[in-house]
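hey so u asked for the seq, here:
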Amino acid sequence: MSLASVRTRSIWRWQLILAAATVTVTATIAVLDPPRLTSVTFLAGIVAIVVLTVGALLVPWDHVPGRAVAVLPLAAIAAIGMMSSEDQTGTWLLWVFPIAWIATYYRLPVLAAALGVIGLFVTADAFVGGMQPTLVQRAVVVMLCLGFMGVTINVGARRARAFRHLLRRQFAQLDRTRRRAEQHSRRTAILADALDIGIARIDADGTLLDANRAFLDLFGSASLTEFSGTGAVEYRDYRGEPVALADTFLARAAAGERCSDRRVWMFDARGAWRALNVTMRPIAADVVDRPSNIVIIHDVSDTVAAERERESVSTVVSHELRNPLTAILGHTDLLLEREDLPTGVQRQLSVIDHAGRRMERLVTSVLEGVSLTDEPFTVVDVAAVIEASLVAFGPTAVAGQILLSHDLRDLRPVWGDAFRLRQAIDNIVGNAIKYTHRGGVVHVSAAHTLSQTSVVVADTGIGMAPLDRDRMHEHGYRSEAAQASGIAGAGIGMAIVSEIVEQHSGGLEVESAPGRGTRVTITLPRPQPATVEGMPT
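ran it, structure tokens below
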């Protein structure tokens, strides 16, 4: 219903109530005081009320300005004034209806005008009656009563309108808040459904209160109402024994259990095995509507499969490398036993033998699961380690027309693992040669203090930008210059160096700039004098 039709109905209601009261009064007078009906002014007032009522029903109030409507109750006041002229029956009480009408819908000036019209009628009636005390008294009582009633109704109506307006504003604000909450809820649901991480909330009764699409898909459910915990089966291990319903992660979540990244194996609704990391966090009742448990599921199936594949490939490759290595080392031993070989050939065979045994140790560690970091530390002649590395890379440097020089006069023993230190030196020297152009220089030098020894490998190669230098310790990271050079590499050499230096409680410093080469310095702790036997200190 529109506002205009509401106003029309209100006008009809007020006018019909006045008409009904007038008819009732007229009928009462006709029974009790028939001569009164012969008064011309009385009959004129009744006719005016009837005309006003018919007009109120016929006028299209939807098109009439609001202030113009006040003419109707003011005209009714005049009609009642004609009816109550020289009247002792109390028909003036009918003024209550138009005064209440005006006081309800109009401001005080209009109410004052209406009371002024009534005042004219009662004053004129008192003058016509010779200012009799009863008529004057009636005029005063009528004006006081109608004035008090009108002001009271007007104040109450204003307050009611203000309260109604306030309620309307509050309801509008609540509606806006509700819409914003619904929009926020929809956006949150969209974001949650876009994640490949399963998120759910479960109460103490095991009821699924909320869940995103990834969680529902795991159990083959289209919605919360269709969710069934039996849509996927939980196992103790891959292809192991099924977990009892009371021990599933859903049951543990309902019990309020807390855990982080617990490995769970599921056979999902699509018939696929899933390796899941499950995290559960209880939520107190003062945070949400009821005590519940948040369940977060990370699907790590691809990661687990990749790890198993990598382990399998590593084992196979390492096993297959052992046989040719055994043959290489065996024939190298036979050649080294010969006494008719030139000195240079024996030295080269020694390098091959040493490299082969290092590779054999690496293969063995992979096959047997032995960590290279478990070896005990000893006093290491780091000069011998570096010289062996330089001898090994000598042919590569010659082939690349790179000058490989060294100055190890100040090099002193260090405390550590010779095998791991050789790995670090090999990676640093190998990178220096690899990324140095023909005609370049790779120089290895050393320095020492009472507590530590420093090894410096400097080259005139392609160098690195500051950002690449900061990230060179990350596994698999290669600088833009290295990639642009077209030189093959896995990006793990310096990461291995960092791990080895950290294992030895040493330090690693890299200085480099694009086109200006690289300078790598590793600092290693020296052994205590008491641990060095027969070696220069």
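The CA atoms of residues 358 and 419 lie 8 Å apart. The chain has 15 helices and 13 strands.
lmk if thats what u needed
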